[in-house]
Amino acid sequence: MQKVIVIGCSGAGKSTFARRLRGRTGLPLYYLDMLWHRPDRTTVSREEFDARLGEILKRDRWILDGNFQRTLETRLKVCDTVFLLDYSLEVCLTSVGNRVGQVREDMPWVETEFDPEFKRWIMDFPEQRLPQIYELLDKYRDGRNIIVFQSRQEADSYLDTL
To answer: Looking at residue 42, what is its pLDDT?
Structure first.
C-alpha cells in the first residue's frame, strides 16, 4: 500500500479515516478539497487543480482524500489501494451537520451552515454518483486492492489491524 485513494460521500468520514491511515502507514496525505478550494471560498481553475493533482500522482507514495468524480478515473489508473466508505445517507447527513463550525485540517475555511445545495448533493449521492463509482471500481479492479466499508466500525476494525 503506497498509493491510496479514499472515496465516498461527503460526511462519510473520508478525512478522518485518511488521517488515521496516515498515522498507521506514514504515507503523506493530500486533501483534494485543499487543492480545489481557496480560503476565500472560491476555487482554482480546473487546469490548476489538474496540474496540482498530477504532481502528486507522480510521487511514489501518497494518500488522496476526496471524491472529485471528474478525476476519479485518473487516480484509479495509478493507485494501488482504494478505500470506499459506502455509509448510509443518515450517517453522512448527520456528520456534515455536526461539523458545521468546526476547524478542519481538510478544508481551508470553517463551514458556518449546512448549505441546502450541499445537502441536496449528499442526498443525491447514492443514486447519482455511487453507481458510477462502483462501475469504475469494477473497471480498475485488477491490480488494485479495493476495500469497501459499510460502517465506521468496519473501517475502525481494519485500521486497528494495521
So the answer is: 94
